TrEMBL record, chains A, B:
Residues 7-301 form the Prephenate/arogenate dehydrogenase domain. GO terms for molecular function: prephenate dehydrogenase (NAD+) activity. Its EC number is 1.3.1.12. InterPro entries: 6-PGluconate_DH-like_C_sf, NAD(P)-bd_dom_sf, PDH_C, PDH_N, Preph/Arog_dehydrog, Prephen_DH. Keywords: Oxidoreductase. This is Prephenate dehydrogenase. It comes from the Bacteria. Coiled coil: none annotated. It comes from Caballeronia udeis.
Amino acid sequence: MAAFSFNKIVIFGVGLIGGSLARALRERAGATGEVVGVGRSIKSVERALELGLIDSAVSLEDDRAFELALRDADFVLVAAPVAQTEPLLRRIAPFLDARTILTDVGSTKNDVVAAARAALGDRVGQFVPGHPIAGRESSGPDAAIPDLYVDRNVVLCPLPENSPEVVERVADMWLATGASVHRMTAEQHDSVLASVSHLPHVLSFALVEMILQAPDAALKFSFAAGGFRDFTRIAASSPEMWRDVCIANRAALLTEIDAYTNVLARFRQAIETSDGAALEAAFERSRTARTEWQQGGAIKAADESAQ
Amino acid sequence: MAAFSFNKIVIFGVGLIGGSLARALRERAGATGEVVGVGRSIKSVERALELGLIDSAVSLEDDRAFELALRDADFVLVAAPVAQTEPLLRRIAPFLDARTILTDVGSTKNDVVAAARAALGDRVGQFVPGHPIAGRESSGPDAAIPDLYVDRNVVLCPLPENSPEVVERVADMWLATGASVHRMTAEQHDSVLASVSHLPHVLSFALVEMILQAPDAALKFSFAAGGFRDFTRIAASSPEMWRDVCIANRAALLTEIDAYTNVLARFRQAIETSDGAALEAAFERSRTARTEWQQGGAIKAADESAQ
């Protein structure tokens, strides 16, 4: 485990993601600094305080407390919905210490970079865009766990304005949670995530939507079984969050939808012409790749348990 | 549990599906009749005999043993891959007792009905097409379990030529395994399954195929996480089986692919025009339907444990 220490970290949004980081730093990494939780109202951070995730709770509505919270902070973590990034950074900017490092956890990065440039101007070098690829089905401060980031990937998308030291500090913070840290451009990140995360969500929502439109939808749902269950698990995800992700990552997602539509049209053609050889070859390629991917995950999990 | 007894049942293909039926009848329903397992070679049924799933093992290659096995059978269950249905029924036909009831477990039904008509001619009334909607990730006789069918749906697609008594006997057999039994036409069955099972498999295979075609496929796979895992679990299914299902259920599957492509095009349009309201409304409908479906499953499971 990488050594990591801090004096004060300010977390905007102390739910599953922000709360788990707080727990990971204190319980896994043994860091002793002050953790300040900030919420849109004091009510929204009270539960995190009750649970001991944070040392103090501050409301965005309380200007004086908010200013004090930011004073001398080593880190500011923005763990609020992506659409709030720009207004939050604008609120933070006037009180931002020159030594404070900011980072975020948003699922899309091009839009976050644009928001950070707009809100922070020539101080954007203090902001390191980040995305921990981790989650659980439950949300909120009660869902926060210290091990959420163990063996998960965290992507950092450093800006040309970031100094190596600033990026290193953010990387060290995530390494201390048990995650592995990768660097890529915001464009690469958004393209990769569009492919392996955003597109599958859209496809899963679309299957349920299609069945709902059928006149015999109830009959169809009543005979859905395990394959449907797994395929549509992500269709129970937050509509607001996925609306925002789809729009924030529009360009990359449209590219992926078009590539997918082409593959599906090719499969359709093979089915229509009863081209069993083409279907079997494609299904075999998929099975092999999926199985290898899963085994890679299994090997990783085995390493973890040996630690 | 429905009372059910038999003197002799002959099972073609004693793997997960056929073997689990044998175990369910004996271990759950307490039926005491003889279970004969038939395989393409004696080797393929030896393991089922070792495991005690069957009382005797017969090879299709041994004409005399095969003829004896069919004599006085109450039931013949065809639990072999769908494409083998017609040749198997042709092999059975010359030795078929007038009192023997045949049924199958195929994932598609229109093609099975056509195969049965072609192979059995005017004795097709002895054949009741069926499909237990159950499975496990593992296969073969070692995977057979007595509880595979508990609280699962079994669909029967009776033919006009079936007498009510014949259909009732097959229904009683499945009820004795703990399943619930539903009747619909082969057309209805194939349409429903195309929608909630066959299409999701095609869509899942297509996502992996699309990523494989990307120049940065390895990078993409390395950042795939939980959503991808669930969505593509069924992309590790048997390529041969799904090739056959796609072709056997071609007409219904093409209809579903076209309906799906339309929904996806509508989603694409909403993303391209940043129509957040349309996206959120559709995602919300999907989440609600998916959540209700899941809860229905939970209620069913609760009923089971109360029995």
